[in-house]
Every structure is written in structure tokens, then in C-alpha cells.
Amino acid sequence: NAGVTQTPKFQVLKTGQSMTLQCAQDMNHEYMSWYRQDPGMGLRLIHYSVGAGITDQGEVPNGYNVSRSTTEDFPLRLLSAAPSQTSVYFCASRGYEGPTDTQYFGPGTRLTVL
Amino acid sequence: RKEVEQDPGPFNVPEGATVAFNCTYSNSASQSFFWYRQDCRKEPKLLMSVYSSGNEDGRFTAQLNRASQYISLLIRDSKLSDSATYLCVVPSGTYKYIFGTGTRLKVLA
Questions:
Q1: A105 contacts in chain B (CB < 8 Å)
Q2: Does residue B53 surpass a pLDDT of 80?
Q3: A32, A39, B58, B93: which has the highest count of C-beta atoms within 10 A?
Q4: HEC states along B71-85?
Q5: Is the pLDDT at B94 greater than 90, yes or no?
Q6: Would you place residue A100 in the very low, low, confident or very high pLDDT band (cuts 50, 70, 90)?
Q7: Who's near A39: CB < 8 A, 6+ residues apart?
Q8: Structure confidence at residue B93 (pLDDT)
Q9: A45/B32 CB distance under 8 A
């Protein structure tokens, strides 16, 4: 199993550009989520999905869109990039390892918006 | 009060020392709690879960104090490889997790 994969690993955008961060998991987990991590702020939930076709907003959803057409994929779209969206983005899927509820994170995408 | 609060550290300890971190939470309805470990510029990984009063796994012990609304992580016989940031995680409702900002640990040779 590859677990959770994310692409790209690094990205530089100009203000106003749009892009999609890709996330895929091969563990057949229903629950997937996107976080951003900024210094001193911890991980903050952007959007999450509890299954194909079902998404909801997290703590900081503004400026981001998601969709979930398959169980495996959960892309995050930046509609019009702003410098405030410079951050490290982590995708995660959630499932049970034995009795333990576990979130598995992808390796992250480091995004800089100029 | 923040939903999840941690001392950012850093905690600098010598190899072999015992070190403990606390994490306070505000949602008294939370039933399960987690400690994740994050190495520099890497993704977080689950270290331990706490569902009742405590959990032990080798050199690591996690304890829960519901009355005072905090969980702790105790690391015995610290190794250089334990150097990392430790994130406290508390569920918020059925689908959301709230992450603390993390406590940095440096184990010194």
C-alpha cells in the first residue's frame, strides 16, 4: 500500500493563479481531509469528506474548493491564490488500525504564493 | 480558552532523561485523545491514543485527567531519535480533529 500520496511536493504560484493539489489514498478509507500548517498555528482543517460525493467545510475553508468523486481521490483547488495561502498543506485519510482510530497523512505540499 | 493548548517548548533534555508534556482541552465531552509525532518538515504520525485513563507503549505513557481536562505524554529513557514535535489531538464532534500547536522536544547527547 502506498498510503496517502500528494502531488506536487513543492509549488510556487503568483497571486491570482489557480491550481489543484492532488491527494489519493489506497486504503479504502471513507473519511479524508485537508489541513494547512502554519508556524505557531498548528494544523487547521480546511475541508473534509466522509465519502464519495459528500464534503463539508472545516475551520478555514475560504479560498479553497474540494470535490470527492471517488473514494480514492480528494483534490483541493485554490481558486485565486493569495500570499496568505502560503503554507504547508497536508491531506489525510482516516481509518481503524485494529481498534485505534488513526489519521494517515500524506507527505505534504509546500506552497508559496508570491 | 483555546480548544487545545500545548506548551511550545522547546524541552531540551539529555539522553536517558524522563520528560513529560501536558495538553489541556476545553471540550469536556471529548472521549478520545491522541498524541501525534511530527519530525521536521515531515507529516504527522500517530504515536498513541488515549480512550480511558491511560495507555502505555514501551517508553511512552499517555495519561488522561478528565476532571482537570488535560492529557499528558511521558517519555522515559529519552533517545536522540525522540527529538521531534509532539502534537496533541482532540476530536471535535464526529468528523473533526483539533490539533494543538505542538511541543518541541530536543534530546541532547
A1: 43-45
A2: no
A3: A32
A4: EEEEECCCCHHHCEE
A5: no
A6: confident
A7: none
A8: 81
A9: no
